[in-house]
Amino acid sequence: MRRRSSLVLLALAVFCVALAPLLREYAFPRLVAKALKSDKAYKVMVLEAQNATLFGDPKGEGKATATIIQTVRPNPDESDGQTVVWDMNLAMLDSEGKVVTQIPERYAFDAVSQTPQNCCGEHIDSKPVAHTGIAYKWPFFTEKRGYNYYDAQAQTAATIDYKRTENFNGLEVYLFEQTVPWSKVPIPSQLPGGLNPKDVEATGMERWYTTVRKFWVEPVTGAPVYAEEIHKEEMRTPNPDDPANPGRIVVFDGHVKMKAEWSNKLIADAKEQRSQMLLIHDRIPLGLVVVGVLLLLASLLLQYLGNREPKTPSGKRRRGPDAAGGPGEPAAAAGAAGSPAAAAQPAPPVPVAAAPVPAATETAVLPRIPVSGSAEIVAEAPVPASNGKTPATAYPERPSAPPPTG
Question: Which residue ranges does the record annotate as region Disordered (predicted)?
């Protein structure tokens, strides 16, 4: 009985230890991919630049309040397996809440590693692109190192460096920073101040841009919870410093920061997602390994106790201290052996050949164990339309209310 129980415990131990890596390596990627494709991944991020220069702003140079709204909408119809597709829109509003420029984008990436997949009609401003490097989100379990980060303005990737670990509103985050030097970048299909992109290109002017961007990233989820950017854009002639043909228009110059109420919403989401991820990726697999080890020890203990049970001369296990007679011996024989008459008569000699030979001690052979190595949000920042663009009429006013807490 003990041996059978030992084998059952051993089988359970092997099952628990084998299930741990299966949950971590097979179930976890599929669960996070499903989450990134669902409505839970829909996000709105609102940033603001005060005392900025925005071409055509009614407040004038250096006095504008520019608002940047970025929406992220998962596209489950285009997503497949671990490939996640997001449709995004970046819009800038002037001091009066009027949309002056916006850039739609589609981005496809691997759910766990964040590696771009270069599929599914990805584009920037309706023009096909091939993303390289991470963008908008860091990999799960972000490391303290530099990453290749994709710049949607320049449409190239460059290193974004890890700077330090900080405590940000009660949450441990990693600070990453990237500096993009002055670079010639594509002219978007919509420009501030009523500038017509085709007319601008016809004059031979070029769009130049530089920025210093910072992200505060929660490392377990890889989600940025706060961002800042010192951003400058200019329209230049090929030789803007030539006195004979000068040409330079400052399109934007400002220090963009994420608004606190929107950052707090991202922090709350990151805390919740962090707990769920650690449970699936670390705590449950570790618990299964611990349970498996305990079951293995219990199995070995039962096997050991079974081997220590005493045996009768015939090789059978003794059932108790008075089990010498055994149920198979006749009751009369037991009684005769205990009578005075039987005691007086000498016992007949036992032939040497008939003497019982003690049975060899049974050795237990253990089985081998394998080695297991909301409505308000929509009004303030609506999602892009099915074609990836968001009409300017969708932003009648600049957002002022914080996101819903529910």
Answer: 307-353, 379-406
Most confident region among 90-94, 234-238, 327-331 by mean pLDDT: 90-94
Residue 210 to residue 129: CA distance in whole angstroms: 21
| Top-confidence residue, 349 or 237 | 237
Q: How confident is the model at residue 304 (pLDDT cuts 50, 70, 90)?
A: low
Whether the model clears a pTM of 0.85, i.e. scores above it, the answer is no
- Put the strands of the sheet holding 248-258 in their side by side order: 127-128, 123-124, 99-110, 83-93, 64-74, 43-54, 248-258, 223-236, 206-218, 171-185, 156-168, 147-151
Q: Which residues pair with 339 in a beta bridge?
A: none
Distance from C-alpha of 178 to C-alpha of 283, rounded to nearest angstrom: 34
Per residue in 104-141, pLDDT (tens digit) is 999 999 988 889 999 999 999 999 999 998 998 999 99
Which residues, in sequence order, are CB contacts of 86 under 8 Å at separation 6+?
41, 72, 73, 74, 75, 106, 107, 108, 109, 136
Residue 106's H or E segment, with its range, is: strand 99-110
Q: Tell me the domain boundaries of the chain.
A: 2-282+375-394
Q: What is the DSSP letter of 328?
A: T
Length of the chain counted residue by residue: 406
Containing 298, the helix (H) or strand (E) segment is: helix 284-307
Question: How far is it, in rounded angstroms, from Cα 139 to Cα 137?
Answer: 7
